[in-house]
Amino acid sequence: MKKMTASEFRQLPSISSGQNHNQNVDETVLPIISDVQKNGDDALFRLTEKLDGVSLSTLYVTEEEFQQAESSMSDSFQTALKTARQNLETFHAGQLEKSWFMNPHNGMTLGQKVTPIKRVGVYIPGGKASYPSSVLMNIIPAKLAGVEKITITTPPDDQGNINPHVLAAAKEAGVDTVCKVGGAQAIAALAYGTESIEPVSKIVGPGNAYVARTKKWVYGDVDIDMIAGPSEICIVADETANPAFAAADLLSQAEHDEQAKPLLVTPDWDVADAIQKEISNQMEKLDRKAIIRESLNQNGHIIVTETLAEALDTANRIAPEHLQLMIRDPFANMASIVNAGAIFLGNYSPEALGDYTAGPNHTLPTSGTAMFSSPLGVYDFVKKSSIIHYDKNALSQASQATMSLAEAEGLTAHARAIQIRKDEGNAPTND
Questions:
Q1: 258 catalytic per annotation
Q2: Where do the catalytic residues lie (predicted)?
Q3: Which pLDDT does position 19 carry in this prediction?
């Protein structure tokens, strides 16, 4: 990891990488989207054979495959799934919203009707690791919101199988529909439908650059959760931080992939030195040290500030996916943080808790988008409709102001729609 001052760090190009146009990726995904739209299931079978190296006889995971996956799980893993599910349900239940109504004046009812999205697609990556935790994180808030049908898509291995941990998590979360489709073709199938896959109204879940770019292209035809970039962690540490803990947490994010961004911000050069030494010592003992080393070399930074206040300001400028405050009195200093996907307080709240069992969602804004967006939650799986009811007298009270605004905009038909109800003999006979 490279050491620098806060002013030197500010001179670097932005860490944001998720929103830039990528012509090479587009040249791959746009023909795939078109192919799936035109050829449906045939395109999915053909692309799966070409890109994943397996010829499938069916797109769906069978009940027998679910049973085999569940029976192969250890008791400790099943217990871990149940613990994570229960904690996620408890936390996300606090996000539930209800329809509401108000009567600000006689004869007037206003309100908001909350309705769950009917069909949702969830993408679960394959590749370098399996992600049963992502199954729970994406499914549980959708189920709590009342989504009627949830379809998981995930790439098969070269034998045509889905990772059994993913299937066990799908069952634990209460989802029966899992499709053996990955990549851009899976996103296109969810967005536009095929003979076998019903189109959805929203697509959520992480993926590689091709998945992320396809989500961006189908957005507008369907809703999406976010355009996710590489994983990030920013640790703000002072002299009260345990260097071994901080190093372990930075390494835990670096092992995701070579593009992961581990950042340390501290007002103390001695703390910077101690944590850097721990990183070097611990890295050599880790299974994914080649990936970790590349992540640290490419994207790792140790930023030394003049004061703790400057360290917190630097964290806000970064707007990280994960922010750990390993400082004296983190609760008091939390008030200074305005841009972060998730905030972990103290020496004993590692980011790994948030990835798995704490309860809050680990699907978080990346690439600086925490400046304007939020973690995935129940609120992402509902839509809201405004409710308006006026009786004749209430309309009469509001008519002049409404017509004045309409006429100011030159929309005289709007004004007439009010006037016609005011005119004697034209008012409706019932409300």
A1: no
A2: 321-322
A3: 42
